[in-house]
Structures are given as C-alpha cells and as structure tokens.
Amino acid sequence: MDDQRSTPDDTIRFRPIDRSQAVATPLDKLLPSDHPARLVVTFVDGLDFTPLYQAIKARLGQPGAPVFDPRLLFSLWLFATVEGVASARRLERLCQRDLAFRWICGGVAPNYHTLSTFYAEHGDFLDATFIDILAALTERQLLTPKTIAIDGRKVTANASKESFHREPTLQRHRQEAEQRVATLRQLRDKGGAAANQQRAAQKRAAEQRRQRLAEAVASVRQRQEERRQSGRSQPEEARASSTDAEARKMKRSHGGFEPSFNVQTATDVSSGIIVAVVVTEQACDNGLLGPMVEKAQANTKTPVERSLADAGYSDATDVEDLEKQGTAVYMPPKNEKKERQQGKDPYQPKRRDSKELAQWRQRMGTAAAQELYRLRAVVAEGVHAQQSNRGWKRFRLRGLVKAGMEALWQAIAHNVCVLIAKKWLRTEGILRPQLA
After folding, report:
1. Which pLDDT score, from 0 to 100, does residue 432 have?
2. 254/336 Cα distance (integer angstroms)
3. What is the rounded average pLDDT of the residues 245-252?
4. How confident is the model at residue 387 (pLDDT cuts 50, 70, 90)?
5. Which of 11, 35, 65, 240 could form a disulfide with 216 if both were Cys (CB 3.0 to 4.6 A apart)?
6. φ and ψ at 73, to 5 degrees?
7. Torsion from C-alpha of 99, 105, 111, 113, nearest 10 degrees
C-alpha cells in the first residue's frame, strides 16, 4: 500500500511551527513572577542551613568534587511535595524538563541518587526546621494555637502483606541472608573491576536484607511478649514484616488490613497550620491525646487552651490530666450514641467520675461546645484529605524514624501551602496579615 499523507487545507489558520528557532530567554524571565516555585524558594532562603553546611567536607583549596547546595535540594523536595511528587527518579526527570523545577535548579540538575539520599537523611534538621517555622509564624502573630484539632490517619507502609512471617520463617530467611553475605565476602577481589563493583553492590544489598531480618526477628519477639502480657492465646502466631519490621497490620477504612503506620497530626484551628506531627505503630488513637497536646505546646511554646478530638481518643487519664493543666477537652463521650439509644443522657456525670471527667461531660452537653467540636472534622480531617490529594497515600521510606521524617516533609509542605493560600507569603518573605 502506498504511503499517502494528508495535506493540510491552505485555508486553515494554524499557529506557526518553527523548531529551528533559537531560544535565548533566561529561565528567570520565562517563569511567571507569582509562580509558587518562586514563593517556595524565597521561603527556603529564609531558613537556617548552618547545621548542614557545617557537615560538608568539600572546601576551597581542598580536594574533592563540589556538592549541591542543601538549600537547592531542600527547595526541590519541598516544591515536589507541594506538587505531589514523591519519586526521586520522577523528580530527576522534572528537573530536566519542567520549567519550574529547571528554574529552581538554575541549570544544574542533581541525579535521583543525590535527591533520594537527601530526602531520607537529616531528620534532626527537618524537626528543628519545622519548629523554627512555627516560631517565626508565632513571632509575626500569624499563629496563635490556643485551639487545636487532633486526628489520626493510617498511611500504608512500604511493606507488602506477604512480607509478614512468624519467627521460624524469619529465622530461616535470616540464616540464608547470612550465608549469602559470607559467600559474597569470599568472592571479593576475584575477577575484573566491573565484576568486583557488581559484587560490592550485591554485598550491600545482602547486608541490608540481613539487617532488616534481624530487626524483624527482634520485632516479632517483642510482639510475642506483648501477647503474653495481654493474656492472648498463641503468642507464637505473632508476625513481623521482613522488609519493615516496625510496620503493623492495621484495619483501614475499607474494612481490610494493611501494613501501616498511624500518623497523628495536631492543627491550629484558626490558621490551619500543622503544629505537631507524630508517627506511631499504635493502631488505635486511645491514649494519644495527651502526648499530642504536649507535643503541640512544646513546638509552639504556647499553652493550648482547647483541644478537639474524636471519641477514638477517649481515655480517662488523658482527659483528667489535660483538664488539670488548664486544657479544656472537646471530645464526645465514647458511648454517646449507644446511651442515647438506651434513653440515657451521655453528658450526665457518672458515679465514679472525677471532678475533671464530670466537668468534661457537662461541657460537651452544651450547644457552644458541640458547635466548637464541629470544627474538628473540617480542620483535622481536612488536613489529611489535602495530604492525600497531594498524592501522599503510602510511605516511600521504611522504619518508624524514617516514616516520621516523611511526615515532617508533608507537614512543612502543608504549612507552605497554607501560607501561599492565605497570601502570607510573598517573594520578599512572610508578611503580617494586615500588610499582605
């Protein structure tokens, strides 16, 4: 069959195509002046990177290749998190193709390995930066966290259901991993440079697997002991993941169980700024209300006057302690619906209630308290919904510590989005609301 191509009608007006023209316009002129990337870079420029700069060994007059500025890598990941990009390989491609990311890079794009390493390190710096941002907002009177809303969200861990095994299976896999490491050590320095480089990579992977399996064995033994102390039958049936020993199977909203971590978030009701984030392996929220309020107060150096939480946080000790400290708890009684169906008043003090518990119940029976409590779903659940909409539905890092770092990236990105949405962030920095 002959190759026949259609010819455009000469009467149609097309936009001209000229792929041979030279483009000499600087990136700074191509990117709009009000683009969010500019705001993110300006925001990052105001942060203190002294701890990261002090750890860099590449200095003038000394051997070694130059490194990427941590400020650049932080800007890339912060803007990527805002845009819902979680993959280092995808971010590498965007740094080469996307105008906003190319502008942030300034023409020099890091590879995925550099990006991935930076993202998974510097947990102490992330935590300190998160607190410094809250301090700056409080100083400028943009943040007054007297009322906070607390909510938990289960995020899928970087582990599969099939990776969970009992102790005998984990021990067998561990022995196999140790044998693999020993074999690779014996083969070291045998063969050419390429073969040795390949074996070195295999050895690193084998050692990482052996370490993960050792952690899994320790974790499954801990869970067995927890089962014994709780009086549950068959403690030897406890399982742990061979890829992420700290992940737990948790019941999710769809009714099934998945390896997950529980992300606890405390949000300032008036501004929508996250003031505390904690990642835990505890499946339920019970007993986490008090620690989250304490974390929020420590981060902001401001006493919390009112805390909003759902009935899943219902813990008598937490309520009593917070009420004694001057933090009013706005949380419905745990069996509120059931008692209503039975014709009982759930807000009446119980016979064994302390003064603080009785005060809490009576408060929740008032219209003013119930109206304030309605803000919890809008604020707290809204934060988790926005994070999910930005693509954060699964951890890419493994382990409780690394998961906490990933949650901090998400919290900082959320707060930056709030600053941009409220127009508190300009290319010249953070401004007071009346000047924005």
Report:
1. 42
2. 24
3. 90
4. very high
5. 240
6. -65, -40
7. -120
User: What are 376's two structure tokens?
Assistant: 């919890």
With H, G, I as helix, E, B as strand and everything else as coil, classify residue 301.
Answer: coil
- The DSSP bridge pattern shows strands 164-165 and 240-241 to be antiparallel
Residues 6+ positions from 371 with CB-CB distance below 8 Å: none
Name the residue type at position 250.
M
CA distance 273 to 379: 10
The number of domains in the chain is 3
Phi, psi of 251 (to 5 degrees): -75, 130
Q: Which two tokens stand for residue 397?
A: 């890092």
- Containing structural domain, residue 188: 162-241
Per-residue pLDDT tens digits for 106-143: 878 899 999 999 999 999 999 999 999 999 899 888 88
Residue 17 within a domain: no
Please tell me whether residues 391 and 293 are part of one structural domain: yes
Whether residue 187 is contained in a domain is answered as: yes
User: Do 167 and 189 share a domain, yes or no?
Assistant: yes
The residue written with tokens 């290319």 in the block is: 427
Beta strands in 56-165 (DSSP E): 147-156, 164-165
Residue 151, phi then psi, degrees to nearest 5: -155, 155
**Mean of the per-residue pLDDT values for the chain?**
86
One domain, residues 260 and 366: yes
Q: How much is the pLDDT for 429?
A: 58
Q: Give CA–CA dist 127/131, Å, rounded.
A: 6
236 and 94 belong to one structural domain: no
Helix axes 355-364, 316-325, angle to 10 degrees: 90
Task: Fill in the amino acid letter for 393.
Answer: K
**Are 222 and 357 contained in the same domain?**
no
Quickly count: other Cβ atoms within 10 Å of residue 57's Cβ: 8
Please check the confidence at residue 84 and state whether its pLDDT lies above 50: yes
Q: What is the mean pLDDT of residues 289-300?
A: 95
Secondary structure class of 248 (helix, strand, coil)? strand
Rounded to 5 degrees, what are φ and ψ at 110? -75, 155
Write the single-letter amino acid at 176.
Answer: E
Q: What is the pLDDT of residue 114?
A: 93
